[in-house]
């Protein structure tokens, strides 16, 4: 990358001036009949397809290399760091999560895939926002000589791709976290922690 | 529960009237030298301890029952459903994630624990917010006759606790998701997916 991104200002934004996010107040009656309220952040672009976003849990299988996963590293202004995440994207209006995952993977990597599992609609951050997502697990079978294909990115999208063997995923995420320039995304880390934990002992 | 919660209104909220959340505009220069901006949601209560929240990945060990985990079910106004999550909470100013996890687990369940792993600072939802969290994995050793102890909840906190064997976690989360009243929290599901995936085959 030619230079590190720099945040030049952080200013208050009136809801009415915001294009992408708004604040809402939810009034509700709780289980005991008490009137309460909650403040939430709402994306103005919330999908009409029933879910906002899809995360792509991908497994790359290669004839002579260990099973691996493709991660994306990109600058995220909300936290002012580079995040390490699985590829992800918003679900378009007439699309299923599965279709969105296949499309996004193709755009970000050029790979075609086989869907292994489509998870349920999940709450992304249920204390703060109404955002939802689905996890789509997919497998990509590579040929012996296959290398990384061309990306098809939108203008302004600067995404670096890194392939990590699954057996090293947890340790690699821990190592990235030691570098102040990077932050691992929560959901990817929780998946890695599940894998790591399953290998630890006689729990399951 | 005496009655189901009901949302009675959802209204626009001016940033200046909000007590808990605000909107900010981040201006930044990207890697190619282009000036760009991003809209983000920011908690007004952001922790001074370096991380906002802690999630408690807990394992209950019992002499004659399978290794299990304690989940909490609570009504979440941002999504208008009951979520299924691991116990979690905000980290106080002079507290580490580890201390917060021990305190929260004690408050929500009464259990004392042994810390297994403290994860790095993670981005909760890096496209939308600056919120961060850490995953603390802990083990609770129960006696043969030990039952669920008294909770110590704040006023207005209505939290149901459910114990699920780890070997059934993924399937149970899938089943909850089929009931329109419930939504599983993303991070818990990703952990369960990691466990589930590790059991599937010869990937790792």
Automatic annotation (TrEMBL), chains A, B:
SUPFAM superfamilies: Nudix (SSF55811). Gene3D superfamilies: Nucleoside Triphosphate Pyrophosphohydrolase. GO terms for molecular function: ADP-ribose diphosphatase activity. GO terms for cellular component: nucleus. PROSITE patterns: NUDIX (PS51462), NUDIX_BOX (PS00893). Keywords: Hydrolase. PANTHER family: ADP-RIBOSE DIPHOSPHATASE, UDP/ADP-SUGAR PYROPHOSPHATASE. This is Nudix hydrolase domain-containing protein.
